[in-house]
Amino acid sequence: MELNRLKPIYLFGIVLNAGALVYALATESWLYAGAFVLILVYLAFRFRMIANA
């Protein structure tokens, strides 16, 4: 798959997980919030790798 086509997919995933993180923090679901933070870190790392390529 072409790298330029992956950028919007990663951005959508980052935005979606950020929304889920905010919801998890609002409902005080700390375990879910921790999982969403890990996913956000992974997606941001992958996005930076693609953006620099």
Mean pLDDT: 94
Termini, distance in Å? 14 Å
Tell me the number of helical segments per DSSP (H or I, 4 or more residues long). Answer: 2
Strand content: under 5%
Let me know the largest β-sheet. none
Q: Structurally, how many domains make up the residues? A: 1
The Rg value, from CA coordinates, equals 12 Å
Based on secondary structure, the structural category is mainly alpha
User: What overall geometry do the principal axes of the alpha carbons give?
Assistant: elongated
Keywords: Membrane, Transmembrane, Transmembrane helix
Transmembrane segments: 9-26, 32-51
Throw out a few tags for this protein:
53 residues, mainly alpha, 89% helix, 0% strand
3D architecture notes:
It is a single chain. By secondary structure, this protein is mostly helical. The chain has one domain (3-52). The protein has two helices and no strands. Helix 1 runs antiparallel to helix 2.
Architecture blueprint of SSEs:
Layout: H1 3-26, H2 30-52
